[in-house]
Amino acid sequence: MSDTMRDYCKLTSCRRKFICDYFEMELKSIDPLHLCCDNCKSQCKCELCMDSVTEAATVACPTPVQVTDKARQAAKHALLSYFAQENAIPLAQDQLVPHLSTGLSEDLADQISRDDSIYDNTNCREYLTELYPHLPQIYIGNIDTIISKVRDLHL
């Protein structure tokens, strides 16, 4: 393992900054911090992080639903396919790690697909915007469409 990789693994500060510095890319600030990286998430003091995540989800969508693993897998697969397409569009010539700029990562697909509230939320777009304010509305709209299609499959 290289020294740089070892440093990254042991890092307690912002991982996104470390990667951007390594590839000599400009770091765009992420607000709230919990959307940046695992280290920033642990330091985030926003209102959402100060409340329990389940309380925030309950407020946004009070009716809990049962979602099958098959539906979650279908949603994650569809989201990953969509994210790959968006991340394939070059945002800058020197863009080596596109999901750092788009915010469309495998972790995000996993978070969305595991959030049962999204599947039964008639205001899914608003809910997604509240949870992921850093994402452009075009991405939110497309994610909403994907979740709606998975919901309509009744898996």
Number of helices: 11
Number of separate strands: 0
Percentage of residues assigned to helices: 55-70%
Distance between the termini: 43 Å
> What would you report as the Rg, rounded to the nearest angstrom?
17 Å
> How many separate domains make up the residues?
2
Shape: globular
The helix-strand sequence is HHHHHHHHHHH
Which structural class do you get from the secondary structure elements? Answer: mainly alpha
Question: If you average the pLDDT, what whole number results?
Answer: 78
Strand content: under 5%
Low-confidence runs of at least 5 consecutive residues = 56-63
Major beta sheet, specifics? none
Topology:
Elements: H1 3-10, H2 15-22, H3 38-43, H4 47-50, H5 53-60, H6 69-88, H7 99-102, H8 106-114, H9 116-119, H10 124-131, H11 137-153
Helix pairs in contact: 6-8, 6-11, 10-11
Gist of the model:
The chain has 155 residues and is mostly helical.
Describe this structure in words.
The chain has helices at residues 3-10, 15-22, 38-43, 47-50, 53-60, 69-88, 99-102, 106-114, 116-119, 124-131, 137-153. It is an all-alpha fold and 155 residues long. It has 2 domains: 1-50, no CATH class; 52-155, no CATH class. The protein is globular, with a radius of gyration of 17 Å.
Characteristics:
11 helices; 2 domains; 155 residues; mainly alpha
